[in-house]
Amino acid sequence: MILQAKEISKSFGGVRAVQNVSIGVPEKSIFALIGPNGAGKSTLLNLLSGLYQPDAGSLHFEQTSLIGLPAHRRVRLGIARTFQKIRLFKQLTLLENVLAGFHIHQDVPLWKYLVYGDAGRFREEARSLLAFIGLEARSGERAGALPYGQQRMLEIARALATRPRLFMLDEPAAGLNAAEVEFLLQRLEELGRRGITVVVVEHNMDLVMNVAHRVFVMDHGEALFEGTPREVQSNPAVIAAYLGGEFAA
């Protein structure tokens, strides 16, 4: 397992958002976290990525304990993520946004790295990442001028600039049309072929069932079921949690 959590919990005031969840993510797999609204998926992803620290439990990236380690330190270990709400530098160009992702490999402030530093030596790799998401031809345009779906893809390229071994995505298909979802699915599959471990929180069940190797289901902050997509689709507890929803067949 490249990532392993044992009995981690997180409360906000009197609300237990995640309760005694244990999870193991196999290396070089595409691992999906699903569940009804309010199930605790995003909170769990925030715990795994370092945005939150757990109240209890253990969390390891290979042999390294992540407890107490902030998100920026985890990035240097090879852990990257995207967010539900897009967080681009919208006044910068596409190329500059991706170049900003390479900053993690430097020891100078971001502004100094972009203005005076060694960002130029990453330019070819940054263009390759833009080509990966189909946006190399727009590299000189301002990021804020992109349509919503392309902004999501640009955020993926910027996160990949950190050269992650473990890449977490929080609802990457949200707001995408059918063609964009299909392109996203193809990109996730390609990341898997490149040996990057992917953890994805997603509501789009067509995407999940077509791309994931393993699916971890949560409900009310607790682990409900884990299995292959086929096993998840036929599990009575999962079907009940979704009230038939996407799993009714």
Question: What's the SSE blueprint?
Answer:
Layout: E1 3-12, E2 15-25, E3 30-34, H1 41-49, E4 56-61, E5 64-65, H2 71-77, E6 79-81, H3 94-101, H4 110-115, H5 123-132, H6 148-160, E7 166-170, H7 178-193, E8 197-201, H8 205-211, E9 214-219, E10 222-227, H9 229-233, H10 236-241
Parallel strand pairs: 3-8, 3-9, 6-7, 7-8
Antiparallel strand pairs: 1-2, 1-4, 4-5, 9-10
Helix pairs in contact: 3-5, 3-6, 5-6
Summarize the entry for a quick read.
By secondary structure, the protein is an alpha/beta fold. The protein has helices at residues 41-49, 71-77, 94-101, 110-115, 123-132, 148-160, 178-193, 205-211, 229-233, 236-241, and strands at residues 3-12, 15-25, 30-34, 56-61, 64-65, 79-81, 166-170, 197-201, 214-219, 222-227.
Task: Characterize the structure shown.
The chain is of the alpha/beta class and 249 residues long. The protein folds into two domains: 1-78 and 165-176 and 197-249, Rossmann fold; 86-163, no CATH class. The chain has a six-stranded mixed β-sheet, with helices on both faces. It has helices at residues 41-49, 71-77, 94-101, 110-115, 123-132, 148-160, 178-193, 205-211, 229-233, 236-241, and strands at residues 3-12, 15-25, 30-34, 56-61, 64-65, 79-81, 166-170, 197-201, 214-219, 222-227. The chain has ten helices and ten strands. Helices cover 35% and strands 24% of the residues. Strand 7, helix 7 and strand 8 (197-201) form a beta-alpha-beta unit.
